[in-house]
Input
Amino acid sequence: MRSKPKIRRPGPKNRKDEPGGFGTYSICARCEVTGAFGFATLSDTMAAGAYIGLVRHGTAAVASQGAPNPYLKFWLVGALRAGKPLDVALKETLKRDPGAKDRQLVAVDATGKSAGHTGLYNIPWCGHVLGDGFAIAGNHLEVETVVQSMAAVWKKSGGQNIPLAERLLMTLERGKAAGGDTRGERAAALMVSGPNGYHTLDLRIDDHRDPVMKLRQLFDDYMADDIKVDAFLPTRDAPGGRIPSQADEALLFVGRHWRQLRRRLGLVRKAIPSESEPADTLPSGDAAAAD
Output
């Protein structure tokens, strides 16, 4: 039985007159078909994708934001690999952090369970949504419906044979369309885990006036290639990798010119589906988990 998404709303003790971190909204998710983990984010802070998200194939997707503490991601993954349940791993991770009230931390584990924490000192609107196989968090947002709309798009796109990366990007686009960050966005990132110890996809926009539009353009360019560079990378089963043939090099050459033509013609697709009903809202609490 699928659980209802959980939303944590900001409590009355938020320090509205003090800085509480960077404005950011993110999603962590697990593909129910492939088991791959994904992460995507939009932020008002330059190069935010470098430190907010972490995906580890077979273990978890994690995002640490608000006033981010990058160590939280590694501590949580370490606890999961030590056999701790996700809710226990989250609580133990937060206990190690003296600044936990300034943090947002969300994660999804290998079973699809999600858990999250929004500290009381994050800037409103702030909160997180938890559901089967996904966790969404945001702070310094225009309205609560930013994360609700993101959750609705994520759920609606399930079961339609849409690749994980595309679903993540669609979710970000909906968050931006629903209001996004009160200060606007500057950086974006999209990553998907792979079974060989490195990401199968890792795209970042570190500084742009419309980072989600630029990320969409970059993603569509990447997907338009008939051959991806990772087809030649070493794997656990083939540590020597594969040398490109002349035919491979020809396809790569054509792909580069096709990307240039698409940009000149302005063929940049924006896949923002219509919004369905908002997610259910439950009472607040600092940390929560969803089975």
Remarks:
- The radius of gyration is 19 Å.
- The CA atoms of residues 46 and 275 lie 29 Å apart.
- Helices lie at 71-81, 86-95, 145-156, 164-177, 211-224, 246-265.
